């Protein structure tokens, strides 16, 4: 009895000691746990829990001292609009955009459940769907603002932060209607930051344009015939000639990437999405019959620098000529031009003062920007560029494999924390408006 009570007393004393000695969590540890909390909200398409994400983010915004409004431009698709008021609100504003939805995952192929936000202590990796694409960026904006506010910084211009729905399914319920809304016009946005990609090397990647998707189907018709007969002009023969020509073109583009002559975003990519032909039976296909129809589906991505007319001519003359009984149809054909007829790209050189500010801000936070690139796929940034706004795609993740949409998507906590510092520097630079002075002529235009 006596022994048991002594043990109990000792245990209690130890617990009290341990409790008193445990330090309160560091600001970094708190930032990490807020990131994990956001990652744990299941916002995977096709049924994202937007209500939970918006409730969490509104709480974060309140803690960071930001004004918040929830817009619902499409029913059931909340878009959270936050504002950090500048002391000179008539200046053009900055918009920091991120999307709240994520792509689905196959949990059984992950080492940690995709919405556990498990922190692997030895490696410092946080595993979660959205850890790279792009809940990291949204939270880094907010963390950077918290730090700037507690350092007493006040922006000159208004800083807006948007958390938008549906990027992963095309942005039709999010940024697409947003850019034509009255709310957006009233914001007087001058520059948008949106998502980029992780970089396995030391340099951060930054994107100034995107390739435009062309989704194309080519259909062939031809005389049907016995499977034993050799004759010209069958649908399959007509289509396969096109497939061969398309493959040659694909190889020529891919070779430019393989040789290092061009970056992935600078070439026209062509990939076969499906092939459809044959006469089905309950167990397979009729084997002794040449079908009268055959079809191929292509996913083509065009950089804004591409010669579009030449490509269209190639399509009509070589890939789908009527002389071979071929027809084509675009399921999607996005223009490479903005609404003013110019290639939809943002200048990433000294002609654009925003670029200079961005580059210097990253540098002064001990980061390095790689050469600006064309994003190989599509993001919401295209809607901003379409209406003529400059937009850069940037997600500060160096030394990180590209795992967006992949199994075991992760971001290390050190890279995440470093990214907060990068945004602190960027937001400070972009928010500051310098009047007068000798070399401020270009800045005065901002
Ligand atoms: Zn994304």
UniProtKB/TrEMBL annotation:
<dbReference type="GO" id="GO:0005737">
    <property type="term" value="C:cytoplasm"/>
</dbReference>
<keyword id="KW-0479">Metal-binding</keyword>
<feature type="binding site">
    <location>
        <position position="405"/>
    </location>
    <ligand>
        <name>Zn(2+) 2</name>
    </ligand>
</feature>
<comment type="similarity">
    <text>Belongs to the peptidase M20A family.</text>
</comment>
<dbReference type="InterPro" id="IPR052083">
    <property type="entry name" value="Aminoacylase-1_M20A"/>
</dbReference>
<feature type="binding site">
    <location>
        <position position="195"/>
    </location>
    <ligand>
        <name>Zn(2+) 1</name>
    </ligand>
</feature>
<dbReference type="InterPro" id="IPR001261">
    <property type="entry name" value="ArgE/DapE_CS"/>
</dbReference>
<feature type="binding site">
    <location>
        <position position="168"/>
    </location>
    <ligand>
        <name>Zn(2+) 2</name>
    </ligand>
</feature>
<dbReference type="InterPro" id="IPR002933">
    <property type="entry name" value="Peptidase_M20"/>
</dbReference>
<dbReference type="GO" id="GO:0004046">
    <property type="term" value="F:aminoacylase activity"/>
</dbReference>
<dbReference type="Pfam" id="PF07687">
    <property type="entry name" value="M20_dimer"/>
</dbReference>
<dbReference type="GO" id="GO:0006520">
    <property type="term" value="P:amino acid metabolic process"/>
</dbReference>
<feature type="active site" description="Proton acceptor">
    <location>
        <position position="167"/>
    </location>
</feature>
<feature type="active site">
    <location>
        <position position="101"/>
    </location>
</feature>
<feature type="signal peptide">
    <location>
        <begin position="1"/>
        <end position="20"/>
    </location>
</feature>
<keyword id="KW-0963">Cytoplasm</keyword>
<keyword id="KW-0732">Signal</keyword>
<feature type="domain" description="Peptidase M20 dimerisation">
    <location>
        <begin position="209"/>
        <end position="318"/>
    </location>
</feature>
<keyword id="KW-0378">Hydrolase</keyword>
<keyword id="KW-0862">Zinc</keyword>
<feature type="binding site">
    <location>
        <position position="133"/>
    </location>
    <ligand>
        <name>Zn(2+) 2</name>
    </ligand>
</feature>
<dbReference type="InterPro" id="IPR036264">
    <property type="entry name" value="Bact_exopeptidase_dim_dom"/>
</dbReference>
<feature type="binding site">
    <location>
        <position position="133"/>
    </location>
    <ligand>
        <name>Zn(2+) 1</name>
    </ligand>
</feature>
<dbReference type="InterPro" id="IPR011650">
    <property type="entry name" value="Peptidase_M20_dimer"/>
</dbReference>
<protein>
    <recommendedName>
        <fullName>N-acyl-aliphatic-L-amino acid amidohydrolase</fullName>
        <ecNumber>3.5.1.14</ecNumber>
    </recommendedName>
</protein>
<feature type="binding site">
    <location>
        <position position="99"/>
    </location>
    <ligand>
        <name>Zn(2+) 1</name>
    </ligand>
</feature>
<dbReference type="GO" id="GO:0046872">
    <property type="term" value="F:metal ion binding"/>
</dbReference>
<dbReference type="Pfam" id="PF01546">
    <property type="entry name" value="Peptidase_M20"/>
</dbReference>
<dbReference type="InterPro" id="IPR010159">
    <property type="entry name" value="N-acyl_aa_amidohydrolase"/>
</dbReference>
């Amino acid at each position: 009895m006596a022994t048991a009570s002594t043990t109990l007393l000792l245990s209690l004393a130890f617990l009290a000691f341990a409790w008193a000695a445990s330090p309160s969590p560091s600001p970094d540890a708190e930032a990490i746990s807020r990131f994990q909390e956001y990652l744990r909200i299941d916002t995977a398409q096709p049924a994202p829990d937007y209500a939970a994400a918006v409730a969490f983010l509104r709480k974060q915004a309140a803690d960071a001292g930001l004004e918040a409004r929830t817009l619902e431009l499409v029913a059931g698709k909340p878009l959270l609009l936050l504002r950090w008021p500048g002391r000179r609100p008539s200046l053009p504003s900055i918009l920091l955009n991120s999307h709240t939805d994520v792509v689905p995952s196959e949990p059984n192929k992950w080492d940690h459940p995709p919405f556990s936000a498990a922190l692997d202590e030895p490696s410092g990796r946080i595993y979660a769907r959205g850890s790279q694409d792009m809940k990291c960026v949204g939270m880094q904006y907010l963390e950077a603002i918290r730090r700037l506010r507690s350092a007493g910084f006040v922006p000159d211009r208004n800083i807006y932060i948007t958390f938008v729905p549906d990027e992963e399914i095309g942005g039709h319920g999010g940024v697409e209607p947003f850019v034509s809304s009255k709310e957006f016009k009233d914001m007087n946005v001058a520059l948008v930051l949106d998502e980029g990609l992780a970089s396995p090397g030391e340099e951060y990647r930054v994107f100034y344009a995107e390739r435009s998707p062309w989704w194309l189907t080519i259909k062939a018709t031809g005389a049907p015939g016995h499977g034993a007969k050799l004759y010209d002009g069958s649908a399959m023969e007509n289509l396969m000639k096109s497939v061969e020509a398309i493959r040659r073109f694909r190889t020529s583009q891919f070779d430019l990437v393989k040789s290092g002559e061009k970056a992935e975003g600078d070439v026209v990519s062509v990939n076969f999405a499906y092939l459809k032909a044959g006469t089905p039976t309950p167990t397979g296909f009729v084997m002794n019959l040449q079908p009268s129809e055959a079809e191929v589906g292509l996913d083509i991505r065009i950089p804004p620098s591409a010669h579009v007319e030449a490509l269209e001519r190639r399509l009509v003359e070589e890939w789908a000529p009527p002389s071979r009984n071929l027809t084509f149809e675009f399921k999607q054909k996005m223009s490479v031009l903005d609404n003013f007829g110019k290639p939809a790209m943002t200048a990433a050189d000294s002609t654009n003062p925003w670029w200079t500010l961005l580059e210097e801000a990253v540098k002064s936070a001990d980061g390095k920007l790689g050469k600006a690139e064309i994003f190989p796929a599509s993001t919401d940034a295209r809607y901003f560029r379409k209406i003529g706004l400059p937009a850069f795609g940037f997600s500060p993740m160096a030394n990180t494999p590209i795992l967006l949409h992949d199994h075991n998507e992760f971001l290390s906590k050190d890279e995440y924390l470093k990214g907060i510092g990068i945004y602190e520097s960027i937001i400070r630079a972009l928010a500051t408006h310098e009047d007068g002075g000798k070399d401020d002529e270009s800045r005065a235009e901002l």
